[in-house]
């Protein structure tokens, strides 16, 4: 058996539209043959490995708003699709108001790769293992999308349909993600389990965000998002409801972690078994919730 240790990219045509309208029209006209790209950190790898063979790659960087990163005190953060992760990490506004997002970006691969990788690209890849998706879900992110019928917005919570599958229609280009103002007094963390400490996809990822909420019996609300344990990034609703309605104690945190593990439907693969993933969801959820609770107190 001969193994090609230096696989090459298949041939493709590069198209750089001048406007979002032109990009949407081209992508719709060549649906199934054309694919948008931003940093290319995923699409080129998948093309090299034979999983993708698009006829056209459509460069949607540098189109209207895709390089914007700005924070509005009354509205929140808008992150353009072409803003790379190192820029997110270095942003004073992100560090001040959305440190959980910076923490999630920092967990992705290496510094060199993060100069190309983008948060929106991570989202549109629609991998259940996406490291930055959990932070965007817990902050109630909303996607700005440009399609053949013009611009629209779509909640991130309804965006994922399955591994690699989203609600995007032919001609759609995600131009930005908007994160509303974070809850006052919130604290969050992202815990990632990989086969090594650097540059690996998550076997399990747990994002936790907590904040005071006097309207709830517990006085607090917690948001959780789990990576690599279901066909889509998973929000374990049972655990969130339990913590909102029960006094926060070490015992209630352990019970919430158990409920989070119950909501999972992981698979066996080369990085870990389903049983192992469920156990790690329970353990990492307990650790993440405890860490957030200690910071809230």
Secondary-structure topology with pairs:
Elements: E1 13-15, H1 20-29, E2 34-37, H2 43-48, E3 56-59, E4 69-72, E5 76-80, H3 85-90, H4 92-97, H5 99-106, H6 111-114, H7 119-125, H8 133-138, E6 142-147, E7 150-155, E8 160-162, E9 165-166, E10 173-179, E11 187-193, E12 204-212, E13 220-227, H9 237-245, H10 250-263, H11 274-296
Parallel strand pairs: 1-3, 2-3
Antiparallel strand pairs: 4-5, 5-10, 6-7, 6-10, 8-9, 11-12, 12-13
Helix pairs in contact: 9-10, 10-11
Architecture overview:
- There is one protein chain.
- The protein is an alpha+beta fold and 297 residues long.
- The protein folds into two domains: 7-182, Uridine Diphospho-n-acetylenolpyruvylglucosamine Reductase, domain 3; 187-296, CO dehydrogenase flavoprotein, C-terminal domain (Enolase-like, domain 1), CATH 3.30.390.50.
- It contains eleven helices and 13 strands.
- It has helices at residues 20-29, 43-48, 85-90, 92-97, 99-106, 111-114, 119-125, 133-138, 237-245, 250-263, 274-296, and strands spanning 13-15, 34-37, 56-59, 69-72, 76-80, 142-147, 150-155, 160-162, 165-166, 173-179, 187-193, 204-212, 220-227.
- The strands form four sheets. A five-stranded antiparallel β-sheet has the order 4-5-10-6-7.
């Amino acid at each position: 058996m001969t193994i090609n240790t230096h696989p090459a990219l298949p041939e493709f045509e590069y198209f750089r539209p001048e406007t979002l309208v032109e990009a949407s029209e081209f992508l719709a006209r060549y649906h199934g043959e054309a694919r948008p790209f931003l940093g290319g950190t995923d699409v080129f790898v998948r093309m090299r490995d034979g999983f993708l063979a698009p006829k056209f790659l459509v460069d949607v960087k540098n189109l209207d708003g895709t390089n914007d990163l700005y924070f509005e005190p009354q509205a929140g953060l808008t992150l353009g699709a072409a803003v790379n992760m190192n820029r997110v990490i270095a942003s004073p506004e992100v560090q001040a108001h959305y440190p959980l997002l910076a923490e999630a970006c920092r967990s992705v691969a290496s510094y060199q790769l993060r100069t190309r990788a983008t948060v929106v690209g991570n989202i549109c890849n629609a991998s259940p293992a996406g490291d930055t998706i959990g932070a965007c879900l817990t902050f109630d992110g909303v996607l700005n999308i440009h399609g053949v019928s013009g611009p629209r917005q779509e909640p991130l919570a309804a965006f994922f349909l399955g591994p690699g599958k989203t609600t995007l229609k032919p001609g759609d280009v995600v131009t930005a993600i908007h994160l509303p103002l974070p809850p006052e007094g919130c604290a969050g963390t992202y815990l990632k389990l990989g086969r090594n400490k650097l540059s690996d996809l998550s076997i399990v990822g747990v994002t936790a965000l907590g904040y005071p909420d006097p309207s709830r019996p517990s006085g607090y609300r917690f948001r959780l998002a789990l990576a690599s344990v279901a066909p889509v990034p998973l929000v374990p609703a049972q655990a969130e409801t339990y913590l909102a309605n029960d006094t926060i104690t070490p015992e209630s945190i352990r019970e919430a972690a158990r409920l989070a593990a119950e909501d999972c439907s992981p698979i066996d693969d080369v990085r870990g078994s389903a049983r192992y993933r469920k156990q790690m969801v329970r353990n990492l959820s307990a650790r993440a919730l405890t860490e957030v609770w200690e910071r809230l107190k």
